[in-house]
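Box 3.1. Reading complex inputs
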Amino acid sequence: MVDSEKLMARLRRGGYTLLHDSADTSAKIVVINTCGFIAEAKEESVNTILEFAEAKRRGDIEKLFVFGCLAERYKDDLRKEIEEVDEFFGVSSFDDILTAVGVPCVQAPAGERLLTTAGHYAYLKISEGCSRRCSYCAIPLIRGKHVSTPVEALVSEARLLAGKGVKELMVVAQDTTSYGVDIYGKRRLAALLNALSEVDGVEWIRLHYAYPAQFPDDVIDALRSNGKLCKYLDIPLQHVSDAVLKNMRRGVNRRQTCELIDKLRSRAPGVALRTTLLVGHPGEDEAAFAELMDFVREVRFERLGVFTYSEEEGTYGAKHFKDALGQEEKQRRAGAVMKLQADISASLNSEKVGKTFKVMIDRKEGSRYAGRTEFDSPEVDGEVLVASDRPLSVGRFCSVKITSADEFDLYGNAEEN
Ligand code: SF4
């Protein structure tokens, strides 16, 4: 999304009118940014390309370009298979894309983006690539080694965003925990978060994709003491069984994982933990899966998502393991985790009834408003559906008393300011 927004800013400077919504059929040139992470994401990317290849065949669009991770990895195959595409580009070929659409060498000021989010929140990508080598993951093969963006550049980008009305920054990268190692010789994530929190207008900062190994203690301190840092941490753990974690090459074991969770919850009380798990990885036998279920039951993550393993070309997993488990069994395991999590989530949500929270109003929805507490990120987490006697402003905070809850969302009434 951040890459798309940066490219869109340059295209706009080149004189183009940009439409982000693919349902809007008035576009003449279509540029598709693709994902190549796992089978499901690749399928979605290919389906989108095919949809617009069909539009080009019908004469509805004039040009079709594709870039991003899928194109980076498979452009030779895709070129042969989908002839309607005028050109495929890699992940960082913005200059070439501009040339192809007829606006060569148009630069935008560093960090300029055309936001596709609601306007009051935006993603801030703090580094590119990944130097870890998780067995199942093709991202390092596509995006290369971890390269951090300097603190000053990110603070400037945050200022630009805040100047446009952004109040909430979602800090993202393939591996946010390693921020700074490549350019400063040490982890500087906490220093970066503290610097971002000094930017006028930024009120919430939300940390995503924190790798659990070598998790910096000063980030836990920042989560406790920095009032602008949401009490929220997205920390993809993938698994808990030592044998599976070893096969996954995660560089962390069960004991270290549990110690980290304990430390986070004791030193940053109230922090909402979001994690992502991967089921069906080679080596995940019934006992390892049962261990994962017990772990989910015990830890009671506030938020949780599950992926199923898919063998990705060129990865360590594809070279060294047999992908023996059928898709049906993988789906069964993913479904079992999600069912368990739904019960946990419903129970945690019910504990919020009767309490009052600060809520960011994201949009109007029928007669109500949809918003989020600091414990929820847009798109992936739950929402608060707010009833109000007075009009509420999108992009502003309001106090909401929670009156009921289900497994996903909270419901409440806006309080007087
Ligand atoms: S940390 Fe592991 S899963 Fe995440 S991008 Fe890097 S290699 Fe992939």
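In summary: Residues 274 and 319 are 31 Å apart (CA to CA).
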